[in-house]
Design brief:
Chains A, B: This is LLM class flavin-dependent oxidoreductase. The structure is a homodimer. By secondary structure, chain A is α/β, with parallel strands linked by helices. The two termini of chain A are 39 Å apart. The interface between A and B is large, with 66 and 67 residues.
Chain lengths: 442, 442
C-alpha cells in the first residue's frame, strides 16, 4: 500500500507575499498586486512543484492601510487572474474566492464555468460569505446578520450548482454533418427558487472535463460546517495548533456524512506561512529583514501583550530581562502566546522571538528545508485533514519552497512526483460532478 | 494634410462567425463559442491587420435555438475572453459588452479596470441596457421599462466612472526605500449616490496607461443618444444605408456637444458583414455554401416576404418568374427589400439573390477584395462616422479580410499601416481620461 500523500495549495498573498513588508523586498515585484506576471511566475513554479492548486483569496473592498502596504486580501481581480493563469499553466488547479453575499449567482456560475472550460477543468471556487462593512457599502448594501449570510450562501451555492447542471454532459453534439449543434431538449431552465434568490437558466455553457469547479469552503462555526458538509470538497482552515486542526477535520468529515456525502471526498487545507533558508539562521535572518520592512514597532508592542511584559523598540536587540520574565505569562486569548513566551525564556532577543513568526495569521514554519518538511510531516501524520496551504512570507519564497522543500517531501513519499490526472478533481482524488450532489436535500 | 483614415473593429460573432451555418463550415472550429483559441486566432489576425480593436457582444442568457446553431450573441464570457486576448496580443484594443441592467457597478468597475491593467490600457466597455426577459429571469428580476433601463444605465455608467476616478493618477507610489506604497490621502471613497444605486468605493486599483476603459454605446433613440453624448467615445451603429448612418453620426456629434464634450472625440462604428472571395463569383459561392449550412428554407420564405412573392425551396435554382415579378414590390418595413427586388429583377436565381446577403443584421459586402474596399471607402467618404465593425460571415473570413482587403485600404491611404500608440485611446485619437468627464453635470 502506498504512503498517504498530502495535498498542497500555493497562496501568494496579494501578489507579493503575506508579510506586510514583502512588497519592499529586493527580488519581489513591488507592484505584484496589479502585475499579473507575478501571479504567473508563482503559478508556474507551483506547477513545477506538482502542487494541487494555487489559491487567491479576495475581499471586494479596500481594507488595508495603503499608505504603508500592498493590498493583502484583494488581488487584482480573481476572474482576470485565473484566466491568465489558465492560459499559462497546463496542469495545476486554480482556485479563487468569490463572495456569495454580494454577487449574482448567475454571474458566478457563468464566470467560473467559463474559467473551468478555458483551463480544461482545473478550477475551484472558494464560496465565502462577506461580513465586511466596507464591502457591503461598495454594493450599496448592509451586511446581513451571520445567520442570514449563511442562509443566503446555502441558496447561492445550490443555485450555482443547479445552473452548472442545467447543461448535462454529452448535450453538446457539434454534429456538423447533420447540423445538430446541441441536444437542446436536455438543456432546460432549472427554475432555481429560494427565499433569497431566483434564477431561471439554463446556463449556456457545457461542462468541463471535470464537470464543474470544485467548491471550497472557509470559515468555522456550525454554519460553516453545514456549508462544507452540503457542498464542499475542499476546506480552508487556519488552526494554530494540531489539536484544533485535527478536531476540525473530524468535524468536516462528520458534516459530509450528515448530508449523505462521502467523507473521503473532503480535503482540509491548513494554512502555514513558510520562511525557507538554507539554514535555520539564514531563515531567521530573512524574517528579520522582512520584519524591518514591515511594521516592526507594532510587532514589538504586540509581543509585549502576548507575554504580559512592556516592550518597546529600545528592547529590540536584547533578550527580555529576567526580572520581567518572572511575571510574564502567555496571554490566554492568543494561541500563539505560549510559543512566544517559550522563545523569550530560551533567551532569544526580542527581534529574534518575533523573527520566529509568533505574530502571523497562520503558524510559521521557519528554518532549513528539512525543518519545514519535518513540521509539515508531523502535522500531516497527526490527522489535520490531508492538505496545506503554503503561504510564503514573500514572493521569492515560492520558488524556495518548490525547489528545496518539495523534493524532500517527495523523497519521503509524502507528495506526488508527477500529476496523475489533468483536472483539479483528479489531483484531489474526487469524482466528476456536474450539478447538485446526488444526496442534496432539495 | 493626411487623408482621414477609418477606424476598424473586428467582431467574430460567437467565435464562429455571424452566419448561422458558420460553425459547420470546414476550417471553422465548430466549438468556437467555448474555445477561446478561436478568439485568440481572430484577435491575432486583426492585430496583424492593425485593427483598432476586436469586439465581443454579449447577452447573459441563452436566446438561440441550440438544436441547430451555435450561440450567436453570447460568447464564452466576456471578461474571461478579454483576459486571454490581453495576454496573447500586444497592441490591439479589446472591447466587450457588459450590461448596466443586471450587474453591480462595483463589479463592472473592478473587472474592467483589472482588464485595462492586464492589457496595458487597451480595453473598451460597451455599456448596454438589457431588455430580454430571458436575461432578466436569470437574475430573478423583471425587465425595467425602457425609460427606467436608461435611467439606470446613466447612473450605472456614472458610478463606474466615479469608481475608476477614485484612484487618481500618480497615487501609486511603490516607494520601497521609504515604505510608502500609495498616497492614501488621495484614494478616497466616492460615495456615488443615485436613485438606483449607491457605491462607496474607493476602487483598490490604479489607472492604466490610458486612464480608464473607453466607453462604447450601442442602440438608438433619444435615450441612447443621451448616453452616448454624456459618456461614450465609441458608438456601435447598424444602419442599412448611408443616409441613416450619416444622420446618426450627426446626431451623435450633436449629443456630445449638448453635454459639453468634444464631438471630434466620437467614432461611430457601422456594422458590415463581409464575405470575401478572390472574385465576386467565388464570394457568392462561399455565401451559397454558408446558406446551405444554415437555415436556407427560412431565408427563401423571407425573401418571398421582402418582395411580395410566394417562394419555396422548389424555386431555389431559378430566377423569380417574370409573371410574379410584375406584381413584386419591396416590403416597406425592411430597408433591405429594395436591394432584394433589384437583384431579383436582374435575373439572379433565388439562391443567388440570397447569396448577395439581403437577409442579414448588417449590410453585406460580398465580392472580391477591391469591391469590398470600394464599398467601405464609399460609406466612409459619405460621412457615416469614421469607423466600421467588420463582421465576417465565418471565422475563416477574419484572415481573408486582413490579408486581402486591409492592404487595399492601406494602399489607398484610408487605413493605418502601423499602430502609432499603445492604448485603445491612442488608436481612437482620444485623450487620457480617469473618472467622469470634466463636463459631467453631477
Amino acid at each position: 500500500m502506498r504512503t498517504p500523500q498530502m495535498h498542497l495549495t500555493m497562496q501568494l498573498v496579494g501578489g507579493t507575499g503575506i508579510e506586510p513588508g514583502a512588497w519592499r523586498r529586493p527580488g519581489v515585484a513591488a507592484d505584484g498586486y496589479v502585475n499579473v506576471d507575478a501571479a504567473v511566475r508563482a503559478a508556474k513554479a507551483a506547477e513545477r512543484g506538482k502542487f494541487d492548486a494555487v489559491f487567491f483569496a479576495d475581499t471586494p473592498a479596500v481594507v488595508d492601510d495603503l499608505s504603508t502596504r500592498s493590498p493583502s486580501w484583494a488581488p487584482l481581480e480573481p476572474v482576470v487572474v485565473l484566466t491568465a493563469l489558465a492560459r499559462e499553466t497546463e496542469r495545476i488547479g486554480l482556485v479563487a474566492t468569490s463572495s456569495t453575499t454580494f454577487n449574482h449567482a448567475y454571474n458566478v456560475a457563468r464566470q467560473f464555468r467559463a474559467l473551468d472550460l478555458v483551463s480544461g477543468g482545473r478550477i475551484g471556487w472558494n464560496a465565502v460569505t462577506t461580513g465586511r462593512p466596507q464591502a457591503a457599502l461598495n454594493y450599496g448594501a448592509e451586511v446581513p446578520s451571520r445567520g442570514e449570510r449563511y442562509a443566503i450562501a446555502e441558496e447561492f451555492i445550490a443555485s450555482v450548482m443547479a445552473l452548472w447542471g442545467s447543461w448535462p454532459e454529452g448535450a453538446l453534439l457539434l454534429d456538423t454533418e447533420n447540423g445538430r449543434f446541441a441536444d437542446a431538449e436536455r438543456i432546460q431552465p432549472v427554475m432555481v427558487r429560494g427565499r433569497h434568490m431566483f434564477s431561471r437558466g439554463p446556463l449556456g455553457l457545457p461542462p468541463s472535463p471535470q464537470g464543474q469547479p470544485v467548491v471550497f469552503q472557509a470559515g468555522g462555526g456550525g454554519n460553516g460546517l453545514a456549508l462544507a458538509g452540503l457542498y464542499a470538497n475542499g476546506v480552508y482552515n487556519s488552526p494554530f495548533d494540531i489539536p484544533s486542526g485535527a478536531a476540525h477535520w473530524q468535524a468536516v468529515r462528520r458534516a459530509a456524512q450528515a448530508y449523505g456525502r462521502d467523507p473521503d471526498h473532503m480535503t482540509v487545507f491548513n494554512g502555514i506561512v513558510t520562511s525557507v533558508g538554507s539554514t535555520e539562521g539564514e531563515a531567521l535572518q530573512r524574517r528579520r529583514e522582512l520584519d524591518e520592512l514591515g511594521d516592526l514597532e507594532s510587532r514589538v508592542q504586540y509581543l509585549g501583550v502576548q507575554i504580559g511584559v512592556p516592550l518597546d523598540m529600545g528592547d529590540l536587540d536584547k533578550p527580555v530581562h529576567k526580572d520581567l520574565l518572572r511575571d510574564a505569562y502567555a496571554h490566554p486569548g492568543d494561541p500563539r502566546a505560549p510559543l512566544a513566551l517559550r522563545l523569550a525564556k530560551e533567551g532569544w532577543t526580542v527581534r529574534d522571538v518575533i523573527a520566529h513568526g509568533i505574530i502571523q495569521y497562520h503558524p510559521v514554519a521557519v528554518g532549513a528545508p528539512e525543518q519545514i518538511a519535518d513540521m509539515l510531516q508531523h502535522w500531516f501524520e497527526s490527522g489535520v485533514g490531508g492538505g496545506f496551504t503554503i503561504t510564503p512570507d514573500a514572493a521569492d519564497g515560492v520558488e524556495d519552497f518548490v525547489d528545496h522543500v518539495v523534493p524532500i517531501l517527495q523523497k519521503r513519499g509524502l507528495f506526488r512526483t508527477e500529476y496523475e490526472g489533468t483536472t483539479l478533481r483528479d489531483h484531489l482524488g474526487i469524482p466528476y460532478q456536474n450539478g447538485l450532489p446526488a444526496a442534496h436535500p432539495a
